[in-house]
Amino acid sequence: MSSSTYGLDAFGRRHIGTTTADQQRMLGDLGYDDLDALMAAAVPTSIRMGEVLASAMPEAATEREALAELRALAESNTVRTSMIGLGYSGTITPAVIQRNVLENPSWYTAYTPYQPEISQGRLEALINFQTMVEDLTGLDIANASMLDEGTAVVEGMLLARRASKSASNRFVVDADALPQTLALLESRAEAVGIELVVAPLDAHTDVAALGEHFGIFAQYPGASGRVWDPASVIAASKAQGALAVVAADLLALALITSPGELGADVAVGTTQRFGVPMGFGGPHAGYMAVRKGLERQLPGRLVGVSVDASGAPAYRLSLQAREQHIRREKATSNICTAQVLLAVMASMYAVYHGPRGIRHIATQVAGRANLLAGWLTDLGQSVVHDAYFDTLRVVVPGLAANVVARARDLGIHLWQADDATVQVAVDETTTVEQLHAVVRAFGGPDERDVDVPTALPNALPEAMRRTSSYLQHPVFNTHQSETQMMRYLKTLADRDYALDRGMIPLGSCTMKLNAATEMQAVTWPAFADQHPFAPEADVVGSLALVEQLESWLAEVTGYDTVSLQPNAGSQGELAGLLAIRGYHLANGEAERDVCLIPSSAHGTNAASAVLAGMRVVVVACDELGNVDLDDLRAKISQHEASIAALMITYPSTHGVYEHDVADITQAVHDAGGQVYVDGANLNALLGFARFGDFGGDVSHLNLHKTFCIPHGGGGPGVGPVAAKAHLAPYLPGHPMAQREDHAHGFVHGGGPVSAAPYGSASILPISWAYVRMMGAEGLRDATAAAVLAANYVAARLREHYPVLYTGEHGLVAHECILDLRPLTASTGVTVDDVAKRLVDYGFHAPTMSFPVAGTLMVEPTESEDLAELDRFVEAMVQIKAEADAVGRGEWPADDNPLRNAPHTAESVISGEWTHPYTREQAVYPVRSLVRTKYWAPVRRIDQAFGDRNLVCACPPVEAFA
């Protein structure tokens, strides 16, 4: 393999954790001479590629070369001050948050907090986020973030459909909604049979004239900047059985009446302007809050408070966050992720500024908007709305394009609403000098007298001004010096376990390291400070980066075109299935609505199929974890005229290369269906086989898995969708995209699945840098190293724990499933006990009970070195010995190191030690831990208690006394 010839300045040598000598030792244990021999035995010959990819892939660059190319792309962009608005605002990221959260691997390399005992820091940050949203929206319960505002509105619509008792399928939408939100609603509603009624809403709207409807949606303030009172519309709509969804600007809610006080059932929106850069569209943390009674309908994740084994308060994800995987086609949403890193930033913005600071920022924004309106009115210009917060619409008949062009020459982007109307949005970064420049663009003088108001302007009507309090919890009123904030962030980070501490061997999650060089460009202003609707001429570099990454991803997957728009794997799944649906409809085959899904599939597969308007038919798996070909053929025969698609994960969800995959895809194609290959396990395939070559028509890829975007404690993610040419017209388009065409000249004409044209564009440089620095051979080497690591762990542990599924030659792919059910049967030690005991050994547990209950799925990735792999093996062997001691009766079944794990420092030093094992056995089961110990901050958490006693806001300080 080429890894043996890496030069000392090659990035691949830094990325792949095992050295050539390490690999030879590991291969010796497995009985193979080299990596080529191992991969030849593991990957079925029927799907193997020939030569290493070359056509679209450049030679691997060094870190310095890649950064120089990124600099050149950045310099092709032009950063102007954005006053476009439309849901994206300039904001100031406090330096203490940028340095200690966004640029801190303790925060950006952590995983989803499914193991709450070692996630208390980010869980606290998320409960701060929920509390912030609950306070500002005036509603009872908020979740731990949504993907963006547009998709949050869609989820609000779907929640209203589920919760409303109305028989209607109509949803009333405010005509003054953000244009990208309207486009998303139209796309998503059509697939599930919801009729949208777009109507101008105001306080005098005759709701009865709109007809029966299950829900109503209002933008507050409106996209045009209008501040209005929707209370009467909400009341009238609810009186006929509908639910009211309000998309609200969180900063505006510091000054105007909250949605909850107006009667809203659901509030949605974005927290982007709370310190998160625009980033050409994302990633940003959307939000959703609901009134009491709707909490079980919330999509995504909800953090709650429970108690640990000592009765102390402890945070954890609540039940519905876990059960989305279990519900499959009955899930309330296909979203199983969040935007944790961005939600943490937004919550810390509120912690740092506090209620007084947030109100001060909002007042400044409103004051500057009012100042600008006065100057424009003095010029004789007509400002459309008398009541506004930060956005003005100005009527300039026939001159809108000229005004926008003049502003651009002065370094400012305005928005041309139509030929006669210009829109201007003010934010916390707006200076008085920029206001002068805007006035000049409208034909006014260079400067005027300035008297920036410090009180609320008349543009905010007295009747709409907020009188209720918010952010009163001590956490929002304590950490407002930089010293306090730095220490608070450090305290929370120290409570967590991330890749900066050790391996996170999670099957199906591919927790490889996010290299610092890959991350570097994220905060460069040329990428971070771009509005997603900036003119094409100003984002040439970003569009070039997008096109290059699209072409590279198409090449390595064997597809023709790629859309980077989906900002989560779940959205990529949905986009792929919507493309299949659009293809069948275009061919006049509307009856094709059955989606075949193996029983082992990730839960989001089935949920995505339902949201794409399909019926789910489950296909059985055999005892080896493969798709049961006989059952597949039977299901195809039963539903042949209705087959729309098969969703299959490859390698399988069980971590095995299925030899019959080409037969499986051919059977579906013969029946007229399309094949969706879930790309979650691409890290076991890259460089050796391609989805598009063995029958895939469309796939989503997880850039936060195979292509190194950080997990961020549970988000951000990017889930691009790649497809063959015949599906290209149905991939996600966007009405406000700078260009229609994509790499290789394809046009994507489907409806959007994300609010921004290129989704979470500001983190695409991470994957661009990874691919650019690895090159085709480096990507292939990474795959081989990952497969070697998984097989090495499986081989070392096989005599202690059965490896549940293997392919030919007894090999696994990039992950292995350790069967703990025999151990549980013989000793009573459960998979939970082993997972929690691993914390005492300084590890994050592997994936628990997925895809098989009572098992651990281990994926080491290529990033881990041999010493760390051996450390994990040692821990698992020692834990097996401890379990056997319980089985022999040396320790009681209810009082042993596994059942009591994890052990906190307090638990071993406070009071009299009464356990039948020693303190040393509890916390130092291997001697290497003495100097490097990670201490869990809480003992084992009672999940069920928290679900019975749902508390999802900051508990009072006394709770921790």
UniProtKB/TrEMBL annotation:
GO terms for molecular function: glycine binding; glycine dehydrogenase (decarboxylating) activity; pyridoxal phosphate binding. One of its GO terms (biological process) is glycine decarboxylation via glycine cleavage system. It is an enzyme of class 1 (oxidoreductase). The modification N6-(pyridoxal phosphate)lysine is found at K705. PANTHER family: GLYCINE DEHYDROGENASE (DECARBOXYLATING), MITOCHONDRIAL, GLYCINE DEHYDROGENASE, DECARBOXYLATING. The glycine cleavage system catalyzes the degradation of glycine. The P protein binds the alpha-amino group of glycine through its pyridoxal phosphate cofactor; CO(2) is released and the remaining methylamine moiety is then transferred to the lipoamide cofactor of the H protein. The glycine cleavage system is composed of four proteins: P, T, L and H. Pfam families: GcvP2_C, GDC-P. Residues 782-903 form the Glycine dehydrogenase C-terminal domain. It catalyses: N(6)-[(R)-lipoyl]-L-lysyl-[glycine-cleavage complex H protein] + glycine + H(+) = N(6)-[(R)-S(8)-aminomethyldihydrolipoyl]-L-lysyl-[glycine-cleavage complex H protein] + CO2. Belongs to the GcvP family. One of its GO terms (cellular component) is cytosol. This is Glycine dehydrogenase (decarboxylating). Keywords: Oxidoreductase, Pyridoxal phosphate. The keyword Oxidoreductase applies. It comes from Agromyces agglutinans. Its cofactor is pyridoxal 5'-phosphate. The gene is gcvP. Its EC number is 1.4.4.2.
